[in-house]
Amino acid sequence: IKWKLDNIPSTYTGKSRQNYSKSLRKKLKEHHYASTYQPFTPLPHTLHYINRTTSEETLNQINQTVTTSLYFTLDTESIQIRQRKNKPVLIQIQALVSHHFSVIFIFEMCHLPREHTTTFNLIKNLITTIFNSSKPIYIWGERDELTPFVIYNLFSATQLSLTNFQNLQDKFKEQWQQQHPHITSTISSSDLTHECVCEKCIGKSSHELWSLQDAVSYELKEWLDKRSTMSYFNIGLDPQLSQLNLKEQQDRQKLTNYAANDCLSMQRFLIKMQIITIAPTTTTTTNIHPSNINHENIEPISSDDSEPEPEREPEPEIEPEEQQSQRTVTFNTPLSILEPKKHEQLSSEERKKIHNRICTIKQRHRYYRHELTFRDIDRRFTIRKIKNILRQYDISFYAVNVSTSSTTNTKTLYVGIRDPSLIQAYDQRTCMLFSTHHYNKINSRQRRYHSSSHSNRRH
Ligand SMILES: [Zn+2]
Question: What's a single GO MF annotation on this record (predicted)?
């Protein structure tokens, strides 16, 4: 690329020559960041798409989450249409539930429900809850970027003018200037190894705005992949919106990660710049614990009980590049990104526990979106047995998971179902399974003698 930049063909002239050299320079910078830094690593989070497939129940839950959140970050995506103004298509809002855990909402403006429907009004209410809360909403730039979105009738221009938007881009520049004055390498010998990173020395003029990518590179020493900037964010990113093949799923995942990462990198700045105050260290463990998310209402489970179904759900082969960007939607974020201070206070045992738990919840999110629930199952059913029985009943499942309630000590079985349209049929077919009665029946058949207990423990 560098060679190309130095040798732009003479056929390119004037404006097109400028554009060509600008796009090459961008590519060169992307390449430089990509080869210098590790890919950007977000903090743990979950993600919801908001569109016409989002259920009323989910929207109500989200409204709850949003009400209890303290801060928000916001970003938008638009698409370019030849000879026309940019079309606004996505609004990404991140709700910071605790300091290290957040929920990302991607509002797909081209796939909203029809106006005046119940779900449309719920989405509108959700936006109102966020915008009218007077809680700070951090954006990388001016609130103007939201103005084109008023055409979707989810909020008005007046509403925007009253919302507590905070320009993080300006705050970042200000802080960078304060904390990075020009250093001449002659001051002390130890400074010789450090290049000066004052704005002038890194080639930024005093009135030039910082791109999010530059800020991530210089402040976080990570590479925020910007190669998808000009993509079609209007295609419908939620896999629920249409039937997709693997390639289409991966493309949408990539764009989703891209859209979410802008919010997630702002969150990292809020912490790094100490705009979000860190909670007292004594509560550190509970703060980073994903179980704090009340709307998820996940019962304590041990990770040993959770087993993905390997035979029917082969992991798709992913190129290394995709694999990195896929981290965005997982909880599997290394704990090393936490403040070192906090990190040391957790014993390795504790860290492992948290990690396991995060992984378990992550799996549950992936597999149990559509699930059959069996309460109070007989505890003699092993995972292997359960799977065999499900296969006998021709239930196509992703994974099974057994959780033990810490209060009642009863076991609940969750079965993640592949095809949500079959869930009712499955439910009818399986409602008598996994009770004590069922267990005894199988056993008596197998061993050819009758068990004494016939109590049915299924409620
Ligand atoms: Zn300098």
Answer: nucleic acid binding
Residue 283's pLDDT is what?
32
CA of 225 from ligand 1 middle (Å) equals 27
CA-based angle 68:71:75, to the nearest 5?
Answer: 120
Whether residue 130 contacts residue 162, with contact meaning beta carbons closer than 8 Å, is answered with no
Residue 396: per-residue pLDDT? 83
SS3 111: helix
Q: Does domain 45-170+213-301 have CATH number 3.30.420.10?
A: yes
Q: How far is CA 418 from CA 12, 173, 241, in A?
A: 53, 48, 16
203 CA → ligand 1 middle, Å: 9
* H or E element in which residue 256 lies: helix 246-272
The CA-CA-CA angle for residues 369, 375, 53, to 5°, reads 20
Q: What is the CATH number of domain 368-447?
A: 3.30.70.330
Domain with CATH 3.30.70.330 in the chain: 368-447
The Å distance, Cα 211 to ligand 1 centre, comes to: 19
Of 396, 242, 367, 227, the residue nearest 305 (C-alpha): 367
For the chain, what's the residue count? 459
Ligand 1 centre from 180 Cα, in Å? 8
Enumerate residues 6+ apart whose C-beta is below 8 A from 364. Answer: 298, 301, 306, 401, 414
Reported ipTM: the value is: 0.95
| Cα 189 to ligand 1 centre (Å) | 16
Q: Ligand 1: distance of its center to the CA of 284 in Å?
A: 37
- Rounded CA-CA distance 122/158 in Å is 20
- Pick from 113-122, 340-349, 403-412: least confident: 340-349
| Closest of 214, 222, 218 to residue 38, by C-alpha | 222
How many Cβ atoms sit within 10 Å of the Cβ of residue 368? 20
